[in-house]
Structures
1.
Amino acid sequence: MRTVGVEEELLLVDNESGDPQALSTAVLALAERRADGDSVFESELHDHQLEFATEPRAAMSELADEIRRWRTMAADRAAEAGAAVAALATSPLPVSPSIGEGERYRWLAERFGLTAQEQLTCGCHVHVSVESDAEGVAVLDRVRPWLPVLLALSANSPFWHGRDSSYDSYRSRVWGRWPSAGPTEVFGSADSYHAQVKAMVETGVLRDEGMIYFDARLSHRYPTVEVRVADVCLDAADTVLLATLVRGLVETAARAWRAGEPPEPVPVSLVRMAGWQAARSGVEGQLLHPLTMRPEPAADVLQALLAHVRDALEDSGDALSAEAGLRDVLKRGTGARAQRALLADSGSLRTVVTECAARTRG
C-alpha cells in the first residue's frame, strides 16, 4: 500500500488578542527532536509560522493520531513561548509579516518584494509514495483536473488583514502570485517534466528547484508525488480526509497509466478557472466538474471525486471513512464556514482566532 505523509503549516498567535506572533525561533528552541536528531518542527518563510511533517504512514488511523499529536505538541511548545497555534490558512487580523532569518529567506524577500512580504499563508501538503519518476509524472498528468476539488474541500481562509475577502480560500489567490505556482499542462513523460523544471530554474527567476510551486509536483526530496494545492484545514479530521482522497487519486491515476489510459486533455486555462471557482465558494456553491469543466453543485462534484477513486479506496480499506468524512464536511462546512460563523456569533475577528486556536489544540 502506498504510504502517505502530511506537512501542515500553523499560524502562531497571541492566545488572548489573536494577533499573529513572530515567535517561531523561540518555539523551535523548545521543540523535541526525532530519533534521527531532526526537529519535529521547522521554520517557514515568516516568523509567524510553524511547520510539522508526519512520518510516512500506510494506515490512515496512524496518520490521524500523528497529526493530532503534533498539533497538540505545537500548541504546548507555543504556550511555553507565550503564544498559541491556529490552523488558519491566513490571518483574519491585520499583520505586518516578519520574514525569517537565513540566506534563502533574505533572497526571497529581496527578489520578490511585496509578494514575499505578503505570503503569510498556511497550506497543507500531502506526499504519496510512487515507484518512479515515470509513474509520478503519469500521476501528475492524470490528477490535475481533480486538484481544484481538493482546494474546495480544504478551504479555510475567508479573511485577509481584517476583511472578508469574499473567497473561501483567499490563501490560494495570494499563493498564486509566485511565478511558478498553479496548475500545469500535461507533461507526457518524466524527461519532459524534468526538462521544464530545469528550464524554469535556468531563467534565473527562481532560486532553485525547491521553488517549483506547482499545485502538484514530484518532491525534490522524497520519492513521492506532493500535492500542494490545499489550505491547512481547521479540523484535523479534514486533513486526514484530504490525505485519504489524495492517495486514492494517486493510486487511481497510476492504475490508469499502467492500463494505457491517456490523461484527460483539459487545457491548463480551464484547470486554472476551476481553481478560481473552488477558491471563491469552496463547497458552498458550485464547482467545475473535472471531466466536463461545467458548473455543477459542489456536493455532486465531491461525489464524482469519490466515485472516481472508489476502487482504490475499497482496496485500501478507506471507502467508508471517506464517505463519512465527505458527508460531515458537506453538513458542517469547511473551516471557511466555521470562521464566518464564529464572526457572526461574536462580532469579533479576535474571537475567531482564539477559538480556532482552541480547536487546533483539540
2.
Amino acid sequence: MPRPPHPHSPSPGRHTALRKTLVPVALGALLAGTLGTGSATAAQEDDPGLVRVSGAETAADRTEIAGTGVSIDLVEEDGTLLATATPDDVDEITELGYGVDSVQLPAEAMHPDPGYTSYPEVVEQVDALAAEYPDLVHTEVYGQSYEGRDLVAVRISDDAAVDQDRPEVLFTHSQHAREPLTVEMALHIMEMLTEGHGSDEQITELLETREIWVLPNTNPDGTEFDQSEDAWQDWRKTREPNEGSDALGTDMNRNWAYNWGCCNGSSDDPESITYRGHAPESATEVEALADFVRGREADGEQQITTAIDFHTFGELVLWPFGHTYDEVTDGMIQDEYDTHQALGELMAESNGYTPQQSSDLYITDGSINDWLWADQGIVNFTFEMYPSSMDDGGFYPPSDVIEEETARNEEPVLDLLGYADCPYRIIGEEETYCG
C-alpha cells in the first residue's frame, strides 16, 4: 500500500542500480548468488534468493504472491516487492503474471558485523544487568530451544523479584533469526529502563506501577546459525528438523495457534521460508513462548495488557488482524480496533514509522499478532524497524546505526507502557472497559 514519505525514505530512483533482469534458463544460478544460502554449504541452484516483484498493486495481489511460499520482505514505495524466493517460487509468481527481477547484493553486505550481539553475549549482558540492578531485574528461563539453549525472560520493575499485581507489558524479539537489530532493541529497552530508574521521573513511575517483560531472543538457534559462518546465512526459521523432509526449521511467526494455516497466509511446504510447521505450536520455541504468556494469567485474568513484537525491516507499526482485511470482524469490535489504531498511530508519530493494520500489507496467518489479541486479549503491535529500503542494509544494516535506531523507539515504548493500565483510555473509553 502506498506510504507517506518520512525522513528516512529513499529518494526516487535509488533502487534502479540494484536491478538485473532474469534470464529464465539461468534462474537458479542467479538466485543462488544473491544472498546467504541458509545452510553451511555452498549455494545451490534451488536455494532462495532476493528478487524484486512488479505488478502487485493491491494487498490481494501481495497475498497471492505470498501464497506461493515466498517471504515478502518489503513493500517499496513504488509498489514493487522485495521477496526471498526459490526458483520454483519465481516460476509460480511468473505464471501468475507478475514480473520478477533478481537483486544482486554487494558481497560486503553479507559479511557478519561484529557490532551485533551474539546469543551468548546477550546472556552475559542480561546476567550483568541483573547483578548491577538486583532490585530492578529478575531473570528466568521459560524453556529451552530445540538445540538446548536457554530461552530467557527478563522482568523489570522496582521490586522485580516479587510477582506483583500490576499491569504487565511484553516485548519479544528475533522470532526471525535474520533480524539482529531486534536483539539490540531488547538490550536498549533494558538499559533505558534500569538506567532511568531514580533519575528519570517518567521511567521511575512506570517501574513503580508496571511489570515489564523483555524476551531478548526467542529464536537463539536460528540466530547462532545465521552468524555462524563468514557470511550472514539469511536464515529466518528455527533449526528443528521436519519429519519426512531434509529442510530444517519452522517460521515461528506462522506457527501460532490462532487461525493457523487458515487463509493462504503461510506455507505447508517445509522447504518454504514461511513454513508454518506441521501443527499449531509445533515449533519448540513457539510452544515455550506461548506457555510463558499463558502462564502470566492470574485468577483467570491475563496480566499482560500490551505487547510489541519487534522485527525488521520496513519501518512500520502494525496491529491485528493479519488473517483478514476486515477491521471489525469476529474477535474484533470497533472499540477494540480503534484502540489498536490510536495507539499505533501515537507510537508512529514519534518514531516516524508508517502505521497500518497488518493485512494492509498482505494476509498472514498463524502470527503472534493475531494470537496475542484473539486468544489472550492483549493489545499488541508488530514493529518493523529500520531500514526502509534494501539500500540501507535490509535485514543487516551496519552496526553503526544501532544506537540511533534503537533510541528512535524509546518514546513509543514509554507510550505503550503508559497506557498499559488501560489501553482503552486512548479512545476515551476507560470507564467502559477498565472500571
3.
Amino acid sequence: MAKEEKRVDPSVAVTEHYFKQLFADQSDFQSKQLFIGGIEYRLFYFDTLIDSSLIQEFILRPLLSRPQEAVRDVVSILDFAETELFDEAVHAVISGKTVLHRNGENRLYLLGADLKKERSINIPTNERILRGANEAFIENLDTNLNLMRKLIASKELIVKTYTIGKLSQTKIAVMYIKSIADSSIIDKLDQRLKSIDIDYVEAPGFIDELIREKKFSLFPQLLITERPDRARAYLMEGKVVVSTAGSPDTIILPVTFWSFFQSPDDYHSSWLVGSTFRLLRLFCFLITIGLPAFYVSVSSFNPQLLPINFVNTLQSSLKYVTFPPFVETISMMLLLEILREATIRLASPVGQTIGVVGGIVIGTVVVQSNLVSNTMVIVAALTGLASFVIPSYEMSSAVRLLSYPAILLSSFFGLLGLAIFFMFICIFLCQMSTMGVPYFTPPFSIKDTKDTLLRAPVWSIRNRPAETAPHNQTRLRRPRSWKR
C-alpha cells in the first residue's frame, strides 16, 4: 500500500515544527520569522545554498511594499512554484530553493534564490584541436544546455530531463533532434534510464555502465566528449547526447567503432588531409595492439619472416639480454603504463619533467644493464606514441590493455597466435551492438566509407547514417548548385 503524502497545514507553527524536526542535525538550516502587514511569514532555507541578496531584493522588498496582495502577484522571481505537499517542499529546500509559508494558507511557495557558483567556460583540455571552437562544457548542466541551444537554435532540438539517484538526485538531460533521431533509440534509452535504481550517480561513468549492452567489453560503447561542437555534429547525424549535472563530459550514443577515430580536425581541413590522418589513426590502432606481440613472435618463433639484415640486428641486440622476449616486452609495457600514470597524477610541470627524464633515464639504464634490448625500447616507445594518436581516451585505454593478451598468445603460438587474436577481436566486434545499432559495420560499400575509413568531401556526403536516422537521411540537397 502506497504511503500517503503529508499535506501542508495552514499554521506556520506546524510547518516550522516539521522542518526543524526533519533538519534538526543540519547546522546550516535556517528558519526566519517575519511579520509584514500584521501577517506572519516563515522562510525556510539552507544558508549555504541560497543567495541572500536575491531574497532581499526579489522576495522581502516586494512583500514589504505590498503586504496585502497574493504572494504569487508580488514576488518577482521566475523560478516560482507552489505545492501543498511537504515532500516537494523538502526536496526544494535541499535543492537550494527558499520555501515561503504565509500563515493561514495551506500551500508553500518554492522560490528559486539559489547561489550560483560555477567556473567560466574555458577551452577543452582533453580534446584539443588545431582549429574549431574553443568552448568546452562545464559542470553546470544549465550552462551546458545553454551552449547547445545557442549552437542549435531550432525547435527540433528536444531536451528531456531525468533525476537519477535516490540520495544524490542527479539531474540528467537527454538531447536529440526530433525530426532526425530514430524514435526507437529514444524509447530504449528512456526505458533504460528510468529503470536505474541507485543511491547516487557519479557521471558519466555510472550511466555508461548502467545502460551499456555488453557489460564485460573492453571496447567503449558510448563516446564521451567535452566539446559542444562535436556534440552538435553527432546530433545532426541522428544520435543522442546525454549530459549530467556535475560533470563536463557528455555521452554520445549510439556510436560505431569508427566514431572513435574521428576528430573535429578532420572537418576543418582538406578532405584529403582528413582522410590521411584518419587512416593513420586506424594504422596506430593496429600498431598499439600488434607491434609488441609481433616483436615477441619474430624474436622467439618466426625470425625467418624478416629480412636477413634485420634478423642479424635483432639477434645481436638480444644476445646479452637477461630475460626472454616475452618477459622484457611485458616489463617494458608495464613500465610505459607506470610512466604514463605518473605524468597524469602529478602536477603539470612536475609530470612533464618526470615523463621526459624518467623515459630517457630508465630507457638508457635498462639497455645498458642488458635487461631489455634496444629494439624493445623502440617498440615500446612506438607503441606508446601510437596509442596517444587515437582521439578517444576510452578507446586508447582499451587498445593498450588488449595488447597484453596478444603478447601472451604470441609467446605460445607465434604469429599464428597473433592472427587468432585479431580474428577473435573481429568476431567479437561484429556481434556487438549499441542501442540496436551494429558496432562494427564493415565499411566496404562506397556509401559507408565516406565518413568511416575516409573523410570524403562535404559535398559528396549527402546522407546521414541509416542506422541512427532512418526517416530523415538527406542532409545535403543541392551541393555546389552555384556551379553550372
4.
Amino acid sequence: MKKTLTLTLLLIISTLSFGQTNENQNEKLALAYMQAYGKWDFDTMKTFYADAIHFEDPTAKAAFQQDFVFDGKENVYQFFKTVFKDKFKNDKPPYVNFVIEKVFTSGNHTIINSTFECVLPNAWFQEKTNETILVAIPFVTILTIEKGKITQHIDYGNYTKYFEQIKAQVKK
C-alpha cells in the first residue's frame, strides 16, 4: 500500500512537472515568435507555423470592412508578407515593434498583451501628408501551440486608437 501511494504521488508530480515544462516551452516559443513579428520577419515567423495554421483578426475586419482570416502556412505567410508590399524599401516599415507588456500561458494557449508600434506608409494617405505617421495601439495576440508549432494565431487590435492617432497626424 505504501509503495502504491508513493508511486501514485511520483506519477502525479511528474505529470504536473511535465505540464509546467510544456507550458514554459510554449511560452518561450510564443515570445520568440513575437520577436520575429516585431521585426517584421515573416520568413522566421513561418518556421513556427503548423501546416494547417489558422490566422484571424476579427477587430481588423470590423475596422477595414474586409476579412482577415487565413488558413494554411503559405496563405498566412503571404498575407503578412504583402501587408506593406511596395510601400517601403524591402516591404518593411522603417520602424515596427511589439512592446510586450504581459504574457501568460495556460495549457496550449499563450496570451500576449502588447502595444503594436509602427510607421505607416504615407502613400496610404495620398496628398494629405508628407510627415511620418506613427501608431502605437493596444494589441492582444492569442497563440495556440501544439507539438511545438503554432496552430492558431488570433489578433485583437484597438483600431479605434489606430484611427484616432492617424487623424491627429494627417492634415485635413
